[in-house]
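Regression report. Comparing outputs from two consecutive submissions.

Submission 1:
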Amino acid sequence: SSFFSSRNYFLNASVHYKQVTIVIRTNVIGRLKLLLTLNEIIFVNETDFRKLDDQGESVFSKRVENCYYQGVVNGEESSFVAVSSCNGLRGIIAFGNGTAFGIWPLDGGDRGRRHPHVLYRTKWSTEALCTTQPIVDSRHSRKAAVKRDVTRQTKYVELALIGDHSFMKEHDLAEDVAIEYMLEAVNIADLMFSRDLNVRLSVIYAEEWMDAQRLDAHAVIERTLSGAIEYVTGHIYHIRE
């Protein structure tokens, strides 16, 4: 498949169109027409993007672009699509029958209109599947549905993201590549939360650890969580206040 840029060069090369239609031609599932809308709340102008290194703290050297889209496959109302378009097309295309595909640009080239991409089938790992789902009878289902209808007002959750040193090394210590990956994950989660729970996610702070780990990971998850809470309380909470 190939892809065109969503940047609005008439206004600003770092600003992306609010609505785009992307046609993907594949050898596996034929032609897909994606109807996409820019996720305008994934982060805001006041969002604080920082990197931490041996020189201290500093803001990102380049402006973070909002190139994160959500939508559907044309003709497939139960489908959902969450992709980014900053450097080619990256994300997920899922259908109502449970089939899902990831899309990713091949390495090299300028990631322009004719740049080739890989479309691959994805599935949940065994570890990610819930094996203790209870059987709920129809009476409970109706009660739950009524309860959900009462709270249809959209709720917003503000997020602080941390790219730890091991994560940054996986992305070659490239601040822009790492933040794109993190925001792509938030974009997918936001679409799923908004569809199922009417909850929206918005990033208000993010930091990347360029030089060292600032939090120990333990085999006992409670110890790791306790350390994370201590770090957030001491180093992040006061910033957002």
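Submission 2:
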Amino acid sequence: GFFGTNCDKVWCPQNCSKRGTCNQGVCTCQPGFSGVNCANLTNPALCLSNCEAVCVEKIKKTQQSGVHTASQLDEAGRKSKKLCVRHCATNNCPTALTSAAAASQKTTLAGLKTLQKSSSAMAVHVHDTPDDAQENPIWW
């Protein structure tokens, strides 16, 4: 749709998911995000440029794994979101450890472990189930 005094401005899809800027109906996504509404995570990363923690979770029951930001975990209602937010708040992400740095790593847990070893800070939590994250968080 259109808005503005002369109806000359164009809305962006889902307001760029609050992860990008809107210019005449087209989203320019922040680093680490892509898609028409900036809802897709482009590369697994330990910390994004705004130091938003990223969790890696492996769910045995469905054999699915993925990388989610703390915000996405909140939307999904997963219990591990509190661990991510708390960790990022207490451990500042180094500026060099961004989605761009992660782009050169494999999208596997081994790649994330390798990337983490190069830094004193970490923001990754790996767990078998969402419930297990609250009881037994694993810290690298």
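Expected: both submissions complete independently.
Actual: both completed, but the second showed a warning that disappeared on reload.
Relevant detail on submission 2: Strands lie at 2-3, 9-10, 20-23, 26-29, 33-34, 40-41, 54-59, 64-69, 125-126, 138-139.
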